[in-house]
Design brief:
Length: about 270
């Protein structure tokens, strides 16, 4: 019999909680360690739609990337948004586990999965920790050169579809051979991408002035993908690990939890 304690111990081994940023909140959120697990649902966000999916598919554990209780709360009353989720999980006998920034820096982790999905190989950390394999982001090489325009299209084809889509900044005809990626919000690593000398940097949540100044200073081309889409490939990675280790059923949610729902071209 596999329990929540068994699976969370393995996840803690792969993504040690001490690797998480000081501000982060990772690990087991709810669910008794002795609860039996036969099916695990993997998702980026713990939102009501994901909880409903867990109930529908019979999962007794949800593993997400984004924390449900990242910022402090003084109550989990069922009359609150997060409190209602916690109550629904407990009442349904479903546990919740989070691996966030500790999965971002792991090797393999979130950015490895993103890079692999995009066909980037020969990976090394963009911002290494102690010169080891861990760290934020990855840097590697495409199997064949592409123009920025073609690479942006390839990124769009490789990731799950979102209303946000894929945006690129830079000369559409620029040749892309080397690529840096960082799952999630990555504007804090633009300098690292420039220092790495890559042709393009793929990340999320880039802002107008930051992008403009980055390009003006000679930085690499930028590709901005939806935050949810850029982190989704990691779910397949961790799900396959859990399935191989425990033989339990795993379900990777394809419910789009990206908050943007309308895109109107001007």
């Amino acid at each position: 019999m596999t329990t929540i304690a068994d699976i969370t111990a393995e996840l803690d081994r792969r993504y040690p909680p001490e690797w998480a940023a000081d501000w982060d909140r990772v690990g087991l959120v709810c669910g008794r360690p002795q609860w039996r697990v036969e099916r695990v649902l993997f998702a980026v966000d713990c939102v009501p739609e994901i909880v409903a999916e867990a109930i529908r598919v019979g999962a007794t554990l949800i593993v997400t990337h984004h924390p449900l209780l990242l910022r402090g709360v003084s109550s989990v009353a069922p009359t609150t948004y997060k409190g209602d989720i916690v109550h629904t999980l407990i009442e349904a006998g479903i546990g919740l586990y989070v691996a966030h920034t500790n999965a971002d820096v792991a090797s393999p982790g979130v950015s490895d999965a993103l890079a692999t999905a995009l066909g980037v190989t020969g990976l090394r950390p963009l911002d290494p920790i102690d010169d080891g394999p861990r760290g934020i982001g990855r840097v590697g090489t495409l199997s064949r050169p592409l123009t920025l325009s073609d690479f942006a299209a390839a990124v769009a084809d490789a990731l799950p579809a979102t209303t946000w889509g894929v945006r690129a900044a830079g000369d559409p005809e620029r040749i892309i051979r080397t690529v840096a990626v960082s799952g999630g919000a990555g504007d804090g690593y633009l300098g690292h991408a420039r220092a790495a000398g890559v042709d393009a940097f793929v990340t999320s949540d880039l802002r107008h002035h930051v992008v403009s100044e980055h390009l003006a200073s000679g930085g690499p081309a930028l590709i901005d993908v939806a935050h949810w889409a850029g982190e989704w490939p990691w779910l397949e990675l961790v799900a396959s690990d859990v399935a191989a280790r425990f033989g339990v059923d795993t379900v990777v949610s394809d419910v789009n939890t990206d908050p943007w729902t309308i895109h109107a071209s001007s």
